[in-house]
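Exam revision sheet. Question 4 asks you to relate a sequence to its structure. Input first:
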Amino acid sequence: MPHAVDAVFQEELRRAGLPSRGVLAHLLTLLRESPETHLGLSEVSELAAEAGLAVTAGDMARHLEALADHGLIGRLPTTTADLIFDTVPEPHSHIVYEDSSQIVDLHVSAETLLLMVREALAQHPEGVDVILRFRRFGAAPQDS
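Answer key, structure tokens:
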């Protein structure tokens, strides 16, 4: 089964115009198989080290940026200066809790999202910030 999964990720890399073998393929596999979907550079580096993938911090940052630039992972706005990457490439929304730095994925319809925002603003009018991020023009959703 791991070889079939690896082949899917290799195909995603190839379609994105990135090398489909080597470090990027291993890194994308690690990210997609991680139970945690929101990871910082240090967390990704730990995953890689545990898997026996030797990559310097600088190279890891460049690999993550390349994957994000090509739409294979996402970048999240956060309440800290740390970059957080989202391993789920499909468009979805997030709730970010500032106190705990917890990030929650929201895979909901636009109607449900609007209801959630309306309710949050009604319950905490001074404690909710809404950030709309517009994806780059031409970034098409990935095929399933």
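Marking note for examiners. Strands lie at 38-40, 74-76, 84-86, 93-97, 102-106.
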